[in-house]
């Protein structure tokens, strides 16, 4: 075994010494050839420098995304498990817990193309064609309601796409703008003796606790509660109108089917618009009428013409969304079983009373 090991090492050394030394003080390697640099030079700048010639549509991007990206990022770019969400979060950057996605946070589309081209799909990076990357980028834009479903992205119209947070970043110029604040730290005549805590953190619990507990301040005596006038009698509550009878078993079955919709639509107390609008009180509601949600133009037009959600329209939509609402932004293909459609309609009715 030792004989073969020495033979391998000897062969490796011979191969190394047989190559002339071209560059570097260590005498190793050679300058990279232009074609070798080009193979690694995938940088794409915000001004479009480095973009390859090509194009890809939202329609093709949806198919490619489902096959290669949905396992981690969800079919609608809404995220799967702990993997990142690529869509949603519009207007959330000022919130305490903002949702940072391509649509809400990323300032440049070039970063999307560059990252997908360089690193995706996970485990098979750089296996996609340039056209496929254009198509995936177009589908991510569509998932964030930034383009329509017939949009085709190419190197020619790439810079026409304006990202919502393009103005949310500034150039880091601290080396010049804040240079007058810089001072050399004093490393001499340091204070000797006892170190005392003079201030405590106001927000983060980072200050070490003292050895002795701080004595609690004496509480001020409470003033005697002043007698308040008796509250005025409340007006009698009017009886609620009788609700239409629901089938509890059907509602339960519909709630189970609705799990297919939860990634995009919220229901119940505190429901908000996500990738799709919330569905509280949807039955009897005019199409495209939730304030603050960006619907497809077709759905808005249908609402303006007086179309409302009822058992008939909901059944047609759930069966074939893209047939009932042309160019709808909802990518869901539809429910195949009539029983599921009836059940989920009953469930939505229970949320609309």
How would you summarize this macromolecular structure in one to three sentences?
By secondary structure, this protein is mainly alpha-helical. Helix content is 32%, strand content 2%. The longest helix is centred in the first third of the chain and has 17 residues, at 2-18.
Can you walk through the features of this model?
By secondary structure, the protein is an all-alpha fold. The chain contains 12 helices and 2 strands. Helix 3 crosses helix 6, helix 5 packs across helix 6 (130-143) and helix 8 (248-257) crosses helix 12 (338-350).
What's the overall geometry?
extended
- Residue stretches low in confidence (pLDDT < 50, at least 5 long) are 1-23, 212-227, 237-243
Main beta sheet strand tally, sense and closure: 2 strands, antiparallel
Radius of gyration: 31 Å
Number of helices in the DSSP assignment: 12
Sequence of secondary-structure elements: HHEHHHHEHHHHHH
Number of strands: 2
End-to-end CA span: 81 Å
User: How helical, in percent, are the residues?
Assistant: 25-40%
Widest β-sheet, arrangement of strands? 1-2
Give the overall pLDDT as a whole number.
81
Helix and strand content put the structural class at mainly alpha
Provide the β-strand percentage band. under 5%
SSE arrangement:
Layout: H1 2-18, H2 34-40, E1 55-57, H3 58-68, H4 70-73, H5 109-119, H6 130-143, E2 152-154, H7 174-177, H8 248-257, H9 297-304, H10 311-319, H11 321-324, H12 338-350
Antiparallel strand pairs: 1-2
Helix pairs in contact: 3-6, 5-6, 8-12, 10-12
Q: What descriptors fit this protein?
A:
single chain; 353 residues; mainly alpha; two-stranded antiparallel ribbon
